[in-house]
Amino acid sequence: MSIPLRLTVNGERRDLVLEDPRVTLLDALRERLHLTGSKKGCDRGQCGACTVLVDGRRINACLALAVSLDGASVETVEGLANGDALHPVQAAFIAHDGFQCGFCTPGQIMSAVGLIREMREAGESVGDAADVERVREGMSGNLCRCGAYAGITEAVVAAARAEAQAGEKAA
Amino acid sequence: MNLFAYTRAASIAEAVTAAAEPGAAYLAAGTNLLDLMKGGIATPSRLVDITRLPGLDAVEPQPDGSTRIGALVRNSDLARNAHVAKTYPMVAEALLAGASAQLRNAATTAGNLLQRTRCAYFYDPASPCNKREPGAGCQAIGGATRIHAVLGWSEHCIATHPSDLCVPLAALGAQVEIAEAGGRRTVPIGDFHRLPSDHPERETVLEPGALVTAVILPPEAAAFSGHARYLKVRDRTSYAFATVSAAAALTLENGRIGAARLALGGVALKPWRVAEAEDALTGANPDAEAFSKAAAALVAGAKPSGPENAFKIELARRTVVRALTLAQAGTPARMPALPASPFSHAAGALHA
């Protein structure tokens, strides 16, 4: 069985031939395209370490069949930085100590990027105490066994506020 | 995961034909199915991918005041749909209280109805389970039963249905539209899921190949938008299935209850709705006494399926009273930052 599959990954068109329909998006990224930033934590949609954006929205790559996503656009942690310039969410995770061992971090960062987009699309403001609660809920699909949640929440809130301020200046 | 054949359906007719083949299963997002396949609990011989079927991904208000929700509408899109959030706020609140953002971005409306129980014994191929293998027995009975049923269970199965979305849909009297070989029909959601009885392996009224194409909220469901809440009690504040949940909706006329809608989640193999509970509220003063009477009517006949779940009966009663109290206070203008949580503060997304 050979199944042709076309994805756009981090802006680049990638053509693949799958020998088996069982390949998940996560395995296609890691094993076929050698983009190993997205992590296989639980492989059952419970931990969020595999979070990537598909057509702009964050999903669990371990629970999506690659064959079903033919034609989709995928963003992974490898596509965030612009050369040596980190994405603002990546920089915020460093500034706020949003990790310890780092295994969950690519998924956390992709989830945060997705969350900030979702909040922007929904017209949600970022500026008061309830934001912390909103961010905690919005990031609850990403587990961190080191327990770096305090830093992660600070990083996401800071990145969301920075983006909101930049948006206001632009407007 | 077992090897399977893969078919991408181009039309509903083609999908229904392909999925009628023994061993075939529909694939939409796959968020529940792939998990079950990885665990060896589901072993379909063919997956019929319906994600490219046209016309199933829209939320469409109808001229008669009903709303048609396509089977493939994603949970997050449904929750953020301005018409749904405004007209059926407890549907949006229930959706946003479910799973994680990643899962809500993928999971579909029909997939939510058709998700399987989270009974740990069902999920463990080494445990006998009458759902997986009729007649094998039920390991949950006499086992760890904290999440199991207190209503509608049988000596063959004590599982619960895990959906949040289905609870307000049941309360609002949604209809499920089904395409099958003989044409299309609609079934009230209250009749869609089966109680376990002697055949826990039969979970819905769907025949082989039948495809859910839409969920329809009837015109009268719109009357409750001003006083509707979903309340979910769970072991952690987010990303957990309900221990017990309640959807409560009221219309208030001159200080009295005009009509009431009420359903419980997490207590049975389907959302639990009882006409007597709603009747007890109709025309009553919206006070603690009326709410307690309705709650008692809703859990009438409840019986623990194990010593560990006896607490759920009182918890269900209190959750109903609290949900009714919240509904009476009025739908908040903004969705709480922690939707459906008893611990939520104000703010969050607009109800539109």
Automatic annotation (TrEMBL), chain A:
Upper classification of the organism: Bacteria, Pseudomonadati, Pseudomonadota, Alphaproteobacteria, Hyphomicrobiales
GO MF annotation: an example: metal ion binding
Species this chain originates from: Methylobacterium symbioticum
Keyword Oxidoreductase: yes
Keywords of this entry: 2Fe-2S, Iron, Iron-sulfur, Metal-binding, Oxidoreductase
Pfam families linked: Fer2, Fer2_2
Gene: yagT_4
Superkingdom to which the source organism belongs: Bacteria
UniProt cross-references to SUPFAM superfamilies, sorted A to Z: 2Fe-2S ferredoxin-like (SSF54292), CO dehydrogenase ISP C-domain like (SSF47741)
KW Secreted (keyword) present: no
Start and end residues of each 2Fe-2S ferredoxin-type domain: 3-80
Record protein name field: Xanthine dehydrogenase YagT iron-sulfur-binding subunit
